[in-house]
Design brief:
Layout (H helix, E strand, L loop, with lengths): L6 H16 L4 E9 L2 E8 L8 E4 L18 H8 L8 E3 L4 E4 L15 E2 L4 E7 L2 E6 L4 E6 L5 E3 L4 E5 L1
Antiparallel strand pairs: 1-2, 2-3, 4-11, 5-7, 5-10, 6-9, 7-8, 9-11
Keywords: Biotin, Fatty acid biosynthesis, Fatty acid metabolism, Ligase, Lipid biosynthesis, Lipid metabolism
Protein name: Biotin carboxyl carrier protein of acetyl-CoA carboxylase
GO molecular function: acetyl-CoA carboxylase activity
Length: 166
């Protein structure tokens, strides 16, 4: 598992910081997918963060092409971010509430769905815990799970993309 950043990632993070300052934002979070088990999570904030700013998850010995156009030009950064935004995907299943997402009914249990699984409309795809209540999130349509965008036990916001069903 490599922890070395891609050169384009450094420029991408710098462009995000410029975008943060230019638009007077307090915080900006982006997840950049390169492929299976290889992504970049970036959280740029004007406030001190208790956790690392960027985390790399890479498959060993795999060459990668840049996911988007080079972010060396600050004007290109908003377009690259919009193109990589999973919330704009037509098959995106978004969170109906703020809470904690769980991919399985209980720790150690099989997940409700996996990438490549066929789902039926109304089938539970995950649970969101809000105020000690477990809310089953149903598939809005039948199809194949193409991507799972959240990890088990992570907090989610209202409208955040959870997974992609095509």
């Amino acid at each position: 598992m490599t922890k070395t950043p891609h050169e384009s990632d450094v420029a991408f993070i710098q462009a995000l910081a410029e975008l943060l300052n230019k638009n007077d934002l307090a915080e900006l979070s982006v997840k950049r997918e390169y492929g299976e088990n290889d992504s970049l999570n970036v959280k740029v904030s004007k406030f001190a963060a208790p956790a690392p700013v960027a985390a790399y998850h890479a498959a060993p010995a795999v060459a990668h092409a840049p996911a988007a156009a080079p972010a060396s030009a600050p004007a290109a950064a908003p377009a690259a971010t919009a193109a990589a935004d999973p919330a704009s995907h037509p098959g995106a299943v978004t969170s109906p509430m703020v809470g904690t997402a769980y991919l399985a009914a209980e720790p150690g249990a099989d997940p409700f769905v996996t990438v490549g699984a066929q789902v039926k409309e109304g089938q539970t795809v995950l649970i969101i815990e809000a105020m000690k209540t477990m809310n089953h999130i149903p598939a809005p349509r039948a199809g194949t799970v193409k991507r799972i965008l959240v990890e088990d036990g992570t907090p989610v916001e209202f409208g955040a993309p959870l997974l992609i069903i095509e």
